[in-house]
Amino acid sequence: MAPKYKRLLVLMLFIFIVPAQFLTAAGNHTISGWILNSATGQGIPLVRVTVDGILAVGTSPQGYFKLADVKTGAQIRFYRDGWLLAPNFITASDSQSNIIIIGHEKNEPFMQLSGGHSYSMALRNDGTVWSWGHNRFGQIGNDTVTESSPPAKASGLTGVAAISACFTQSAALKEDGTVWVWGRSIKKPEPVKDLADISVVAAGWSHMMALRCDGTVWGWGLNDAGQLGNGTDTQSATPAQVRNLNSVVAIAAARNHSIALKKDGTVWAWGANESGQLGIKSNGSNRPKQISSLEGIISIATSATHGVALKNDGTVWTWGDNSHGQLGDGTNVAPLSPVKALQLTEVTAISAGEKHTIALKKDGTVYAWGFNHDGQLGDGTIIESHVPIQVANLSAITAIAAGGNHNLAQSSNGVLWGWGANVNGQLGDGTTLNRSKPVMLQLDLK
């Protein structure tokens, strides 16, 4: 558990960095510190650190990081769940102390949002998990299989640092590095045995992936397409290590494939490839393969059939199925290699829905493209778009999450927004009406 510093600040931005005070070194610097939540004093995990645009390290589950041999003048950036933490960067320089503090404003209720196929999840600042929408398979985790329009609290789950929702199953990473799962007829969270020291967890449709602090990746569950990446197509009830993959800093999973981001900015994928979702020319792979044309990547996301990557220059790159323009390249033709989403720069976060994609820009606006039958593009229509278009009525957004055919966003003043499909109450607005523009959500968290 990270120490609570007396000089912890109550900050006026959703996320803010007190300029780092660095250790003095002759030419190069060793930079280390705790990244803390100013509301709770606890360490913030899953923060990725880049030095001059190159992924250098990720924080531990307790929020600790360390950089060695950083040159004077190097630009250091911090990312959480894909988005860039303010300010845009800090510069290495000689100084005296090495504490970095990141604060969530107290009126910002959620630390993370995650969209399942027809349900939504949110991680509160107090470490509890709340969900609403479809619950036939127990994916809400409240020991029932009853749909819930008001948010329901996951049973017996506290001290959570990160969450992941997918089709019919959910996962949570606790501050102690353990992983808890539910859904697929498990009605309340259960711990995963023989798995510890985890920094990231990703839920797929019928499998799970976990990233250890040592940079290795582990998977369990269904493996018919090689989505566990262990060189076989045999399912595994216990975590098995992905073959020939290390130095990983981020992972994502979907129906029957998985992807990983390495510290060097390269992206690797394995599993099924019927729609080109691996970004490689093959029929699929039961072990990781590099997407050769991607470099300088800092964040990844995936749906069942298409992938998304955020580059360190703020551009977005996509691959796989493009039948509804979800790649954002102006066509509905599947490419042979990743393509650049058009007219989109200064992006800080990405998320992939079933057949649409959303992105958060540095200025707090949100863009969407692809399928729009349920209003998931948020422009007031149900007309699909093959290029990114701005979501209506949203500003000062700090977090986004795409579900199957719906989306969530949180603004800096603590307001939660939802739009798109709502047949199972996954927007949490008290109705089952689809919304083609964002609506403000009044969630009753009791």
Give a verbal description of the structure.
This protein is mainly beta and 446 residues long. It has 2 domains: 28-102, Immunoglobulin-like (Sandwich), CATH 2.60.40.1120; 110-441, Regulator of chromosome condensation 1/beta-lactamase-inhibitor protein II (Methylamine Dehydrogenase, Chain H, 7 Propeller). The protein has no helices and 36 strands. It has strands at residues 28-37, 47-51, 54-58, 64-71, 75-80, 83-84, 90-91, 100-102, 110-115, 119-124, 129-133, 148-153, 160-165, 169-174, 179-183, 186-191, 198-203, 207-212, 217-221, 236-241, 248-253, 257-262, 267-272, 284-290, 297-302, 306-311, 316-320, 339-340, 347-352, 356-361, 366-370, 385-390, 397-402, 406-411, 416-420, 435-441. Strand 29 (347-352) and strand 30 (356-361) form a beta hairpin. The radius of gyration is 20 Å and the shape is globular. Mean pLDDT is 84; it is low at 1-26, 86-91 and 93-106.
Summarize the amount of helix as a percent range.
under 10%
What is the alpha-carbon Rg in Å? Answer: 20 Å
The biggest sheet amounts to: 5 strands, antiparallel
CATH homologous superfamily identity of the largest domain: Regulator of chromosome condensation 1/beta-lactamase-inhibitor protein II
Structural class: mainly beta
User: Termini, distance in Å?
Assistant: 27 Å
Query: Which spans of ≥5 residues are poorly predicted at pLDDT below 50?
Result: 1-26, 86-91, 93-106
The CATH class of the largest domain turns out to be: Mainly Beta
**Overall body shape:** globular
Mean pLDDT: 84
CATH level 3 topology of the largest domain: Methylamine Dehydrogenase, Chain H
The tally of structural domains comes to 2
Compute the number of helices. 0
Can you name the CATH architecture of the largest domain?
A: 7 Propeller
Extended strand count: 36
Classify the beta-strand content into a percent band: over 45%
